[in-house]
Amino acid sequence: MEEILNKRYQQLFYHYESGAIGMLAALKQALADKLDILRPDAALCLLVLYDQMILRPYGGHVLDGGVGVARPSLTAKMSGGEFSERVLSSLTYLVDRLQKKSPRAASSHDVLVVINESWEYLSGQFAWAK
C-alpha cells in the first residue's frame, strides 16, 4: 500500500470519534493494541463495521421520525456486560483468524474475507440470518 494512503487510514482510525459510546472506545483501544498485526485500513474497517453495523443498531439510540426505535430482541434480553463480551469475543475471534491466515499485517480486504469465512460464528453471536 502506498505510504501516504497508509498514513491517511491511520489518521482516520485515530480520529474516529468514539464519543460517549463506552463500548466503541473499548473496541477502538482493543484495535489500537493490535496495530502490529492489523494495517491501519484493517483497523479502521473493523472499527467502522462494529460501530455502524453492531454497536449502534443493537445498543445505540436510534430515532425514526423523532421517535425512538426499540432495541432488537437480542440486546433487549441481555445485560450491557453480556453484549460487550460478545462484541469483544467476536473481535478476538476475527483477529485470531486473521493472524492464522498470514504472517503479514492484515489488510481491510483480509478483514472482509475473514468475516465472510466466519459468518456462521458471527451470525450465532448476533442472531443474524445465515
- Provide the spatial order of strands within the biggest beta sheet: 1-2
The helix fraction, in percent, is: 55-70%
Low-pLDDT windows of residues: none
Return Rg in Å. Answer: 15 Å
Largest sheet: 2 strands, antiparallel
Number of helical stretches of at least 4 residues: 7
Domain tally: 1
Number of strands: 2
Backbone structural class: mainly alpha
Strand content: under 5%
- Roughly what is the average pLDDT, rounded to an integer? 89
> What is the CA-CA span between the terminal residues?
33 Å
Shape: globular
H-E string: HHHEEHHHH
Report on this structure.
This protein has one domain. Helix content is 67%, strand content 3%. The chain has helices spanning 3-14, 22-32, 40-59, 73-76, 80-101, 108-117, 119-126; strands spanning 63-64, 67-68. A two-stranded antiparallel sheet has the order 1-2. The longest helix is centred in the last third of the chain and has 22 residues, at 80-101. It is globular and about 45 Å long.
Give the structure's gist in a few sentences.
The chain contains 7 helices and 2 strands.
Which helices and strands, and how do they pair?
Blueprint: H1 3-14, H2 22-32, H3 40-59, E1 63-64, E2 67-68, H4 73-76, H5 80-101, H6 108-117, H7 119-126
Antiparallel strand pairs: 1-2
Helix pairs in contact: 1-3, 2-3, 3-6
Which structural traits does this protein have?
2 strands, mainly alpha, 130 residues, two-stranded antiparallel ribbon, 67% helix
